[in-house]
Write a structure and sequence with these properties.
By secondary structure, chain A is an all-beta fold. Chain A is built from no helices and nine strands. Chain B is globular. Classes of the chains: A mainly beta, B mainly beta.
Chain lengths: ~110, ~120
């Protein structure tokens, strides 16, 4: 099972929005609505930001939203803040397996 | 506050078995799925497998022949054994809890522990 494809990096000014794509196949993202997104500050524990494509766990601000079309899922962070600077990973269920994305480093300029 | 803490040797020799334990505090293991996930240096995350509190398991097919995950509910711990390790198994290893009583997404993670495979 290959990793899901994400852009390596994205640079955004504070207050702007960024959308990160996560491209898989018809065997993972395209077949299931079990796409999750994680925020990872290096050296710390990853944090679940979205699950089941667009659901937010308690405590996650509504600036974080998700969507899916075909084999590609997306995470949008609006009103970017300095603390949003981190690595972001998507993941998808894939036939009794979990596959993660390659990761995207978001830099707040 | 749910907390997970990985522990185990930071250095393992090639061909030997990597053993890690995750100690859970602030929550019972009951009715949750517990996973191991790893991240090789400079690379992305890889799911290794899960164990349900009752003992049922599911492993990543790419690692299945070498992985064993076990649980000790009396100690609030679950463990990972990865046999016949090579340098490719060098990674930060995380333990994590399945969110909302599912196993496909993870709400609490440990800080991670670096395991280096080297002679």
């Amino acid at each position: 099972q290959s990793a899901l494809t994400q852009p390596p990096s994205a640079s955004v000014s504070p207050g702007q929005s960024v959308t990160i794509s996560c491209t898989g196949t018809s065997s993972d993202v395209g077949s299931y609505n079990y796409v999750s997104w994680y925020q990872h500050h290096p050296g710390k524990a990853p944090k679940l930001m979205l699950y089941e494509v667009n659901k937010r766990p308690s405590g996650v601000p509504d600036r974080f939203s998700g969507s899916k079309s075909g084999n590609t899922a997306s995470l949008t962070v609006s009103g970017l803040q300095a603390e949003d600077e981190a690595d972001y990973y998507c993941s998808s269920y894939a036939n009794s397996n979990i596959v993660f994305g390659t990761g995207t480093k978001v830099t707040v300029l | 506050q749910v907390q997970l803490q990985e522990s185990g040797p930071g250095l393992v020799k090639p061909s030997e078995t990597l053993s890690l334990t995750c100690t859970v505090s602030g929550a019972s293991l009951s009715y949750f799925y517990w996973s191991w996930i790893r991240q090789p240096p400079g690379k992305g995350l890889e799911w290794i497998g899960y164990i349900y509190y009752s003992g049922s398991t599911n492993y990543n097919p790419s690692l299945k022949s070498r992985v064993t995950i076990s649980v000790d509910t009396s100690r609030s711990q679950f463990s990972l054994k990865l046999s016949s390790v090579t340098a490719a198994d060098t990674a930060v290893y995380y333990c994590a809890r399945g969110y909302n009583q599912h196993w496909v997404h993870f709400d609490y993670w440990g800080q991670g522990t670096l395991v280096t495979v080297s002679s």
